[in-house]
Amino acid sequence: MSTTEYGQYFKALRESKGLTLRNVEKITDISNAYLSQLESGKVKQPSPNNLYKLSEAYEVPYETLMGKVGYPIPNGGDTSSERSKSAEVSNKLGEISSDEEIELLQYLKFIRNRK
Amino acid sequence: MSTTEYGQYFKALRESKGLTLRNVEKITDISNAYLSQLESGKVKQPSPNNLYKLSEAYEVPYETLMGKVGYPIPNGGDTSSERSKSAEVSNKLGEISSDEEIELLQYLKFIRNRK
DNA sequence: AAGCGTTGCTAAATATACCAAGCAAGCCAC
DNA sequence: GTGGCTTGCTTGGTATATTTAGCAACGCTT
């Protein structure tokens, strides 16, 4: 199944914000070691508590992260698959795939780093 | 320590429905052994996946169970007095400025055209 | 070059979710 | 009573979430 490891998503998110692993550790109290494993796909289901902290640090909706890692989310059905009929909160950019998401985050990092 | 004995809550829920541990096991695919531990307070943070199954079996809102065991729930109402500081609307990419938004849209177009 | 702080990462260890197997007590038929 | 069936429960084990300690490569500054 879509092996689009969400680890890369987390990594791209962090880098787009210009944060280091130890930066995030400081903010969230999650060890940098664990964060590294998270980003390299060695963790399957991080606890909701940690997802919540990360959602704050990265300023993305908690629900989004819950869905990303495969937990059921309160209002809709499943996620992880892009064919969901869910009226997913439209992003300002319109519908984007997981792969595009990562690329956009990487580009965002580039944008913010120049100048 | 929270001493939050939600175990008794689960037990009361099950009994109110006239279900046995093995009944619930059949329905949810959660072992009766585990269910027993859950109800006797030997489990601290059951996975959202299992909470979801239980919410279906017991016909209570998923969010309610999430809150019961101490997980943050999507719309505020956390156990700890945490009130959202602001309703920042964020998307999967985190906060982005208008200028960035435009650039991202252009880049998205580029991405999609390069096939 | 040598040292120093930073970065991401890994290995080993601990904690805990969860299951398979089984046990003791209850209940109802024979 | 004895046997079978059901109940809740415990014990031992496996898997996995998470941390502590450390390491190697990098960039600085001197």
How would you briefly describe this protein structure?
Two copies of one chain form a homodimer. With 115 residues, chain A is mainly alpha-helical. Helices cover 53% and strands 0% of the residues of chain A.
Summarize this structure as a short list of keywords or feature phrases.
homodimer; 115 residues; mainly alpha; 434 Repressor (Amino-terminal Domain); DNA-binding
Q: How would you characterize the overall build of this protein?
A:
The structure is a homodimer of 115-residue chains. With 115 residues, chain A is an all-alpha fold. Chain A has one domain (6-113): Orthogonal Bundle (434 Repressor (Amino-terminal Domain)). Helix content of chain A is 53%, strand content 0%. Chain A is built from six helices and no strands. Chain A has helices at residues 6-16, 21-28, 32-39, 48-58, 62-68, 98-113. In chain A, helix 2 (21-28) packs across helix 3 (32-39). The longest helix of chain A has 16 residues, at 98-113. The termini of chain A are far apart. The model of chain A is unreliable at 77-88 (pLDDT under 50). Chains A and B meet through helix 4, helix 5 and helix 6 of A and helix 4, helix 5 and helix 6 of B. Chain A binds a DNA duplex (30 and 30 nucleotides) through helix 3.
